Structures are given as C-alpha cells and as structure tokens.
Amino acid sequence: MPHVPEQPADDSPSRRGRPPEPICDDAGATHRTWLETVRSRLVASGLTLDELVSRSGYSKTRLSELLRGKGYYPGWEITYSVVKALDIPPWPVRRLWTAAAREAAKDPAWIKNGLQAVQPLGPDQPPTAHFGFTQAMNRPYTAYARAFLQEDQRARRVVGETFDILWLNWDEATTSPDTPRHAWQLLRSKVMARAFQRDGHPDLRAAAFHTVAQARIDDLAERMARIDKLAGFFDTIACLPPDQMDVTVLRYLCGIHPDAVHGIVGLPQAIAHTLDHHARGALNGLYPHTDTQE
Length: 294
Known about the structure:
Blueprint: H1 29-45, H2 49-56, H3 60-68, H4 76-85, H5 90-103, H6 108-116, H7 128-149, H8 152-168, H9 170-175, H10 179-194, E1 197-198, E2 201-202, H11 212-215, H12 220-238, H13 242-253, H14 258-265, H15 269-286
Antiparallel strand pairs: 1-2
Helix pairs in contact: 1-5, 4-5, 5-8, 7-8, 7-10, 7-13, 8-10, 13-14, 13-15, 14-15
C-alpha cells in the first residue's frame, strides 16, 4: 500500500502569519489606514487567527470581519482587544479609530461611549525621535494642509492623522532612505485625498481670499477683480508638477523660509532651489505681473 504523506494541521508553522483576506472595498480611507497597520502587525507576529481569538476574547467570525473591514464599523472595545493582543501602541490607533468612526457617520454618543468603555490606556508617549520630528514639522505641515483644505480644523486633523500613522510605522519610517521624505509623501497623500479637486488637480483658488494684497484693497469691485486674477494664478500653481507645486505653496503661500523648504519636503537643497526656479519661470511666463509674495 503506497505511503500517504501526512497533511499539516491548520495551525502548523507554514500557516502562521498568513495574511487575512483583502480589505473590503467599502472600508473608508481612515478606517483602512489603521486596519492596514493591524493586519501587517498580525502577519509579522506569526499568530494564527485562533491564537488571536484566544488573546482577544472575541470570536473568529467577529475578528475576521474586523480584519477585513466588513459589515458595521467595529466598536472600540473589540478594536482595542486586537491592538492590545498585537502590542500596538493604543493611542494613535484610538485617534485614528475615532476619525474613521466620524467618517463612517457614527453617532457621537456611540463614539464617546465606546471610548469610555476602555480605560485606562496608559501614557500617550510616542518615541522620542518621533516627538521631536512632530514638533519640528507641525507648523509647516499644518500651513501646507490649510492652503488646500482652507479650514484650521481640517488641516490639524490631517496633520494629526499623519503623525499618528508615522508613530505606528516609526520603525519603517526611520529605516527608509530619507525619513523626512517618507513623512512628507505621507502627509501629501492625506492632504490630496481630502482637497477639493478641479479638472484633475487640487483646487487652490480659495486661497486667493486669504492673500495680503486683496485684503488691503478698500474698493469692493477692485478687490473682487484682484481676487479673480489671483484665483487664476493659484489655479495655475496647482497645475504645476507635484514637487514644484509643493515648493511653491510652502514658500509663497505658507511663508516658509527658502532655506527651510528642502528639509520639510525631504529633498536636497539644490533640488528644492531648482524646483523653485522652474516653478517661478513657468508662473512668470503666464502671469508676468503677479508677485508670488502676495
């Protein structure tokens, strides 16, 4: 009788850390953000789903739904149980979970009750290097986000989300060739995902209402004419290649010192200066009488 090889059990090492099924398409952007971190930590941990069930105290069905973003948005209690089981810093996930709950149109009372059900979480202490980075980048990041989102609260939220994602993936960020560049691209992607779009590019026209030049004009008709011209100018800025647009927005709309721009976007200073030069050349060709410093 031929020998039949013994089949490995479901919890054999070869099945440990197997990726969950894909995230459902209807999971929101911020929901997907924290969920991707949880899923990657699960794979890296080598835990099976059965072991996660044992550690979290929730059923396999509910955990499978959570890991896929399937069905109703998960409560904080079950989310925290998984976060704790995988030794993920809870505070950044808590903030991202809250933001995603708002995006999912969950009732504020539901969010509040869910958060209050899990106490305490311990100190909210990011890595020292991460804290220093956020202190250095908070102002320019917020100014950049505000230029596109036009509201302080929206700008602060997207910057906070960026910093929380960086915290959750700090090891990856610090092992990348250039941490500031990694962080900037993350911020940029979050801002662009929320910015109003116009013909395939971000809509910067509303920034014309916040310029110093138009604010100094007393005559309403003259002011509106000036705003209309500036709106076209800012629309042209938004059509520049991405790196040129970023450098231009930071330097001329956000008022960042030219010697500081390269460190914010994570590019060599010579490249940042070249981008600025090309951007100004393109803008001056189209708007020769418009001062970028306005």
